[in-house]
Amino acid sequence: MVEERRVADSRVETVHMVRPNHLNAAGRLFGGILMQWLDDVAGLVAKRHTRGNIITASVDNLRFIQGAYQKDVIVIIGKVTYVGNTSMEVRVDTYVENMDGMRRPINRAYFTMVALDDNDKPTRVPRLILEGEEERAEWEAAEKRREMRIKRKEEGF
Q: Which residues form the HotDog ACOT-type domain (predicted)?
């Protein structure tokens, strides 16, 4: 029987406070710190989906929309958007959350994660159960991003 999981089964949300040691010389959240947090979330999502070992293969469309500053509350949400045979795409969105609970987006990235067996060889990932139009639309957009990744790889990028 083929394993299947819903998008909601592996969704991850983490919360961080921007502290002085997270700041760059301009007084904003250092991009490298944010990238570490994003990779952590993508890895947790992929581990939940596969219930096994994973590795980050690539990061696409890492867009810094706005900065974050000391004492900002950062909310990072990750979810599986697409699965192939041994890999999956994980969308990671980042927000600054205000005291009233309102969130404004500051970053979005798409990670390609690969499932590994006990010998660190790629292994099959569970299928993704799509529930609702939003998840189907995200899957279709992910298929287009996958095609672009393949084309870039063929062209040497």
A: 8-119
Query: Which of the 8 DSSP states describes residue 22?
Result: G
CB 80 within 8 A of CB 7: yes
Q: Which domain holds residue 143?
A: 4-154
Q: Is the dihedral of CA 93, 125, 43, 111 positive or negative?
A: negative
Give which of 134, 127, 120, 60 is closest to 90, Cα–Cα: 60
Residues 6+ apart with CB under 8 A from 65: 105, 106, 107, 108
Per-residue pLDDT tens for 88-142? 999 999 999 999 999 999 999 999 999 999 999 999 999 999 999 999 999 999 9
73 contacts 19 by C-beta, under 8 angstroms: no
Structural domain count of the chain? 1
Q: What is the CATH number of the domain that holds 93?
A: 3.10.129.10
